[in-house]
Amino acid sequence: MATIKVHGSVFSSPAMRVFACLHEKDLEFEFIPVDMGTGQHKKEPFLSLNPFGQIPAFEDGDLKLFESRAITQYIAHSYAEKGNQLICHDPKKMAIMSVWMEVEAHQFDPVASKLTWELALKPVFGMVTDGAVVEENEAKLGKVLDVYEARLAQSKYLAGDCFTLADLHHLPNIQYLMGTQSKKLFDSRPHVSAWCADISARPAWLKVVAMRSNK
């Protein structure tokens, strides 16, 4: 039986980050679905795993973690010898990787997540998309992606020549937005477009997409 357990949803962007990392490292894990529709994530026993009542929650033996980016860093460091390398060990390269991980968390994700909610998820729930919110956040995301375009003109991946967590963390929002009108923001920037196509075609990510398709 796998010692690693992930409690969450295959449609949750944070959970998808964790799934992608586990597949990149070729690690076996047990996926435990959490029924958010009934508020299972706001009740015990889930709250004992994540007191904030958000998915995912992660277990590796007696270790319990929450916050997806912390989980992926734990996996990448603890299972460094497994699967694909996802972190840089050289101090300078590690610093650059860390910069772009911060950029994803604080510049890309806040606006991309709002667009994902408005354009990809609201229609699924029968809710009306707010055009003003979309317009505002597409403008913001465009400015963020201009910075990415300049960076990716200099290197294949955000941290350099190798795929790392800095790239991986973007995948869930990219997956959602490439199926919406916001796709144009990525396609209109050639280096960003090539980067998106590259990382979205990774075998580990295709396994995450397959997990969603099977539900």
UniProtKB/TrEMBL annotation:
This is glutathione transferase. Signal peptide: none annotated. It catalyses: RX + glutathione = an S-substituted glutathione + a halide anion + H(+). Keywords: Transferase. GO terms for cellular component: cytoplasm. It holds the Pfam family GST_N. Residues 90-215 form the GST C-terminal domain. It comes from the Eukaryota. Residues 2-83 form the GST N-terminal domain. Its EC number is 2.5.1.18. PROSITE patterns: GST_CTER, GST_NTER. GO terms for molecular function: glutathione binding; glutathione transferase activity. Belongs to the GST superfamily. Phi family. GO terms for biological process: glutathione metabolic process; toxin catabolic process.
